Amino acid sequence: MSATVADLNNDGFLDIYVPNDAMENYYFKNTGNGTFEDDGLVMGLAFGEGGQGVSSMGPAIGDIDRDSWLDIYIPDMGYGCLLINRKDYFEDRTTPTNLAVVCGQYTGWGGILFDYDCDGYLDVFVARNDGTGSFVDVADKSGAYFREKYVGRGATYGDYDNDGDLDLLVINLNDTPRLLRNDGGNKNNWLIIQARLPGGKSDAIGARVRITAGSLTQLRDLIPVTGYLSQADLRCHFGLDNATQADTVEIRWPNGQTTKLKDIKANQILTVIQESLNEQQQ
Q1: Listing from the earlier edge strand, what are the strands of the sheet with 152-158?
Q2: Which of 190, 264, 199 is nearest to 233 (CA)?
Q3: How far is the C-alpha of 260 from the C-alpha of 238, rounded, in Å?
Q4: Cβ atoms within 10 A of the Cβ of 118, count?
């Protein structure tokens, strides 16, 4: 139904994850030598929580438990799958985190992982991460849109008004799209990193951005494809909660080169341009 790429095993190479409809899902691990290995079954990424086939939609990738290993959330015809990366395998945590109860009454399509309140914890569109490993349904507190019924399909996020919190765009079947502005998510501090290739004209697709603020470490892979047939903001957004700066910002560029910045002030959109080979040699 959709596909995305991300460095799911932290080896510096982008892997491919393909959720499918009414059949097993595919996970192609990048070997680094120009080939891929199908490790979906071994890694626990092929089937649902009980080993059943699922009708998966588009995947959303993010570090939900903040351990610097990327996790996966996939809406489907049931209650979705929340797959937590345990390095050697993925653990299905859909039921223990309360997502099965929250999402089980509807068919899921466009799923999003984003920090809508800038507290440093990734949230799921229509369900919020409460910071204790569970999700709480806050739809009834999130505006008039959530009190109506729509047949939604694609969904994405982006800070369209550049105020530091992430807004939502939802595509509804046989209806107009709905742009949902986030009012109040920026009460906590935030930082947006725009990573560009040498020359500054092209976004550094495939780069990894990691920030540390006190004891909080977060990472994003600059892969804008998210959810069901959707693309998100190319800039990497980080909620900083009460931190007034990021102690370090580290960017691993697509070619393996790294850039490390220190003491970056919060509440700004920072553009970082990769140095060219000539600049490095000077």
Answers
A1: 152-158, 167-172, 178-180
A2: 190
A3: 16
A4: 25
CA–CA separation, 182 and 161 (whole Å): 9
CB 5 within 8 A of CB 15: yes
DSSP labels, 77-136: SSS-EEEEE-SSSEEE-TTTTTHHHHHTTS------EE-TT-SSS-EETTBEE-SSS-EE
Contact between residue 148 and residue 140 where contact means Cβ atoms under 8 Å apart: no
Neighbours of 139 (CB within 10 A): 14
Place of tokens 């507190």: 141
Looking at residue 115, what is its pLDDT?
95
Select from 140, 74, 77 the least CA-distant residue to 111: 74
Q: Tell me how far apart the alpha carbons of residues 180 and 167 are, in angstroms, rounded to a whole number.
A: 6
Closest CA to 103 of 94, 112, 91: 94
Tens digits of per-residue pLDDT, 149-178? Answer: 777 788 899 999 999 999 999 988 888 999
Residue positions counted in the chain: 282
Q: Of residues 29 and 79, which shows the higher confidence score?
A: 29
Cα dist from 266 to 44, 221, 251, 262, whole Å? 38, 20, 17, 12
Residue 22 CB neighbours (<10 A): 10
| Residue indicated by tokens 């009454």 | 105
d(CA 271, CA 253): 14
User: Of 127, 126, 64, 130, nearest to 92 (Cα)?
Assistant: 64
H helices present in the chain, as ranges: 99-103, 277-281
Q: Could you give the maximum distance between any two Cα atoms of the chain, in Å?
A: 60
Would the pTM of this model clear 0.90, i.e. be above it? no
Q: Is 218 in a helix, a strand, or coil?
A: strand
- Whether the per-residue pLDDT at 236 is higher than 90: the answer is yes
